[in-house]
Structures are given as C-alpha cells and as structure tokens.
Amino acid sequence: MSVLVTGGAGYIGSHMVLGLLDRGEEVVVLDNLSTGFDFCIASQAHFVQGDIGDTALVARLLKEHKVTAIAHFAASLLVAESVREPLTYYANNTARTRDLIEVALRADVPHFLFSSTAAVYGMAGDKPVQENAPLNPLSPYGRSKLMSEHMLADVSEAHGLAYAALRYFNVAGADPQGRSGESTFNSTHLVKIAMETVLGKRPGMQIFGTDYPTPDGTAIRDYIHVTDLIAAHMAALDYLRAGKGNLTANVGYGRGFSVRQVLDVVEQATGLPLNVAEGPRRAGDPASIVADSGYLRQATGWEPQYDDLPAIAEHAFAWEQYLSRRNR
Ligand code: UFG
C-alpha cells in the first residue's frame, strides 16, 4: 500500500512526502521537475520523473506500488501568469486532473486528495470566509482549480471515489527540521520574496498597494505554516480512510496579517533590514482574505501547531540560508 504524491518535488508536495514518511507510509513521487527540485524529495520516497499527463506511466505506478491514495499537487499556480496564458492553466490544472482522476478510477484507487485554493472565492469581504461563500474566482488559475473541484464531486457521485479538496490560504514557512522549503525560482509569494531580499538575492522589493481599506492600507492575508497545512492533509486522509465521506474545507488559521506586519516580522525574525518601496496595487489582488477553518477542525480534529508568524519567518529564513549555501 502506498500514496502517490504528484508534484512531490514542489514546495507543498515535498512537505507532503515528508509528512507521509514521518508517519510510516510508503510514498511514490511523480514529478516532471518543471518547477520542483529533486533535492527537495526525501530519499526514502520512490521518485519517478515524469508527467501526470502520461496516463500509461501513472497507470503502471498505481498498479506496481499498490497505490490506495493519490495526493495531487502537480499544478501551475501563478495567478498573473494564468491571466496571460489561460490555456496552460486549463491544460495543466483542469485537463490533467481529469486524466489523473480517470486513471485513478480505472485502477480502483479509493481516495484522492486535491490541492485547491482560496482563489476559488474571489473577493471575499473582510469576514473570515466559510466554504459555503459564493465561488467567483477572479482568475483562470482559480477557475481551473474550481473546475477540478466540480469534476471530483461529479465523479464521486457517479463512481464513489472519496475525495478531499483543501482550499489553501497563504502557505508560507518551511519544514521545522530544515528538510525542505520553498525553492521555486521567481516566486511571487510575499514571505519568500522578503527572505530573498533580506539575503541580498534581490536588490529590493515592493509593497503592492498602500491604499487598501485596511488598518495600515496594505492587503491582509491568512498566512499558514506549510507543516500545519500538511497536518491538515493527514487529517483529511484519515477522514477519507475512515469512510466519513468527502471533504471540501478551507485551510488557514482564521486571522490575517497585513503586508506591512509580515515585513516587520521578517525584519525582526532575521535581524536584517529589508529594502522596501511602496508601489501600486497588483492587479487582481483582493484587499483581504482570511479563512474560517472551523469546519476542518470540527470534521477532522485538525489542530495547528505553528500559528505563529515569527516561527513561519524563522523556518523560511533557515531554508533560504540553506539555498544560499547551495548557491541558490
Ligand atoms: N505582495 C507584496 N509584494 C510582493 C509580493 C506580494 O506586497 O513582492 C503582497 C500581495 O500584493 C498580497 C500579499 O503580499 O497582498 C500576498 O501575496 P502572495 O503573492 O504571497 O499571495 P496571494 O495572496 O496573492 O496568493 C495566494 C496564493 C495563490 C492563491 C491566493 C488565494 O499564492 O496561489 O493566495 O487568495 F490563489
């Protein structure tokens, strides 16, 4: 019995691999290394370099490794890029997920974990958003993920596949033991950019918008430690295995920090000054989005351990320093 992790060389997927191995599960990683890195994959996992669109390869892996659950992370994830290249997003995120689900059904894989996003909500207002809020994604990225959620629901109804779709808020930080972290080139994520800036890998950075209707004028997000996000996946997997049905749930902490607050914490946690300029708003950014993750807690018993922005910054910094030692 094993779990197939697609995109297991990427930021979140590599932490999923660690989380599964830490609790003694067998893991097969399928990743085409288009944006991931083999040095992020734990050596105890069985790694296959390949594409999830290669259905013959996926079918073979499911059979050979007796896969009983798929954790599907392989995706394109840049909102702005999705606006410029929508078909890439509908291909990589929607069409490939469709093919993966079909192969999973043929191989009688009973459980499917899907990496969804807060981007399915679009403008959410200033209250923590619940799962039953209107789904109006603002970008092809958000729509490509929402379509996959709809497919999973339809397939579950028709064929009985049990799935969990977890809607991630702003994932940040790195493995507390320093085994993986966000390694992506040209990341657009605030904490990652701030870490690269304090370490001089970027000459400076900008705050995108200082005129939002928020207390300090900068945008508010719900930053969640990647290790807590993975704990949510373990809780979701246990939920599926216990036969409790399907699960669509937000994963965040239910509180937000502004861009300025995040950058202040980065300076404090690293002890290094940040070269920051104020810039215009980034197109498509909501002023504020914070998760209500009460449903996930109540349904699965998930309890986060790292709801602490300084810890998120410290772990991200340690990983960024490791990347520097690798000349990255
Ligand atoms: N920001 C800056 N400067 C930067 C980078 C980001 O001010 O150099 C700001 C953004 O404008 C935003 C906040 O920091 O207000 C967070 O930005 P990120 O790019 O880190 O994250 P987003 O909230 O834009 O996006 C995240 C995920 C997406 C997901 C989205 C859902 O990365 O995949 O949440 O809301 F779709």
From TrEMBL:
It catalyses: UDP-alpha-D-glucose = UDP-alpha-D-galactose. InterPro entries: Epimerase_deHydtase, NAD(P)-bd_dom_sf, UDP_G4E. It is an enzyme of class 5 (isomerase). GO terms for biological process: galactose catabolic process via UDP-galactose, Leloir pathway. The keyword Zinc does not apply. The keyword DNA repair does not apply. One of its GO terms (molecular function) is UDP-glucose 4-epimerase activity. Keywords: Carbohydrate metabolism, Isomerase, NAD. Its EC number is 5.1.3.2. Residues 3-252 form the NAD-dependent epimerase/dehydratase domain. Pathway: Carbohydrate metabolism; galactose metabolism. It comes from the Bacteria. Its cofactor is NAD(+). Homodimer. Belongs to the NAD(P)-dependent epimerase/dehydratase family. This is UDP-glucose 4-epimerase. It comes from Aureimonas fodinaquatilis. The lineage of its organism: Bacteria, Pseudomonadati, Pseudomonadota, Alphaproteobacteria, Hyphomicrobiales.
